[in-house]
Amino acid sequence: MNRQTRLKPAGARTVDEITGSRRLRRMRKADWSRRLVQENHLTVDDLIWPIFVIDGKNVREPIPAMPGVFRLSVDLAVKEAERAAKLGIPAIATFPNVDMSLRDQTGSHILDPQNIINRTTSAIKAAVPEIGVITDAALDPFTSHGHDGILRDGIIVNDETVEQVTAAAVLQAAAGADIIAPSDMMDGRIGAIRDALDANGFQDVAIMSYATKFASAFYGPYREAIGTQGLLKGDKKTYYLDHANSDEAIREAEQDLAEGADMLMVKPGLPYLDIIRRLKDEFQVPTFAYQVSGEYSMIKAASANGWIDGEKAMLESLLAFKRAGCDGILTYFAPEVAQMLKG
Ligand code: PBG
């Protein structure tokens, strides 16, 4: 049986009849018209650059799982902050790789006013005061088990962790941090940090809440960068959000705003664009995404293999955050994309 396809059935409507002459391709026909109707734009003002710091002098250690990203000693971190400021990047977020001998069960070294986070902050603020410095008060770089909180009898204890994170946040503010961004997901940390900052005269230090931080496989390369990969036993599911949940993310964000968060963050980024959009629609507050290490490394790895165009994938992923409703993005691509936007 040979069934003949009829390309144009008798009496078929024309395209103009089907579309009512509404042809959306008209505005896509040329570069000038595409530019004219472009809804979202990425600029250097959208970028926050996360950097890794390590003890020593003139150290620039490659991180194999994150091609193009380095652990920097404080002196070089200052140089990079200067470069970032020249490129127009508004802020830097610092993450430390802490010497193993300084890590313990409770992450006590986070309470040393002279620890590497605080030394980095004061060095950057002294040399490049015009760039914003964002610090994390989570304990994971400082604990011998790689968890973000204090571990007692197999449990990450909430309230004791909040006390420690809060004290750390005050020390970070004293060192010059402009924004405290606690990533530990303990209950009550935002309110406790706000109270402590205010009580110590740091009313102007803002809080960016990692309000919706999901238990995720995309943090892998970061754990190599700060050396928690081999330490971490179990997972972080008792404190990070279940990545199956969306309503719970709204509730977390609502709670953090009520406690005094100035800005919200969603982490990871690209797999959670739906959460970003929901938060922006719900709260209309400054909302950020963290394009995490695994997202960065996937693009870099595929690009290194010639499987995708790395530059285009980078720009497309960053613009997607803007479309989803982000005011800005924490991204390891920051200097690369800032350079590109400049040129
Ligand atoms: C933990 C923390 C994580 C990241 C930054 N701080 C996640 C984790 O190790 O569980 C991830 C950042 C990234 O992957 O780029 N407080």
UniProtKB/TrEMBL annotation:
Pfam families: ALAD (PF00490). GO terms for cellular component: cytosol. It is an enzyme of class 4 (lyase). InterPro entries: ALAD, ALAD_AS, Aldolase_TIM. Its EC number is 4.2.1.24. Homooctamer. Belongs to the ALAD family. This is Delta-aminolevulinic acid dehydratase. The lineage of its organism: Bacteria, Pseudomonadati, Pseudomonadota, Alphaproteobacteria, Hyphomicrobiales.
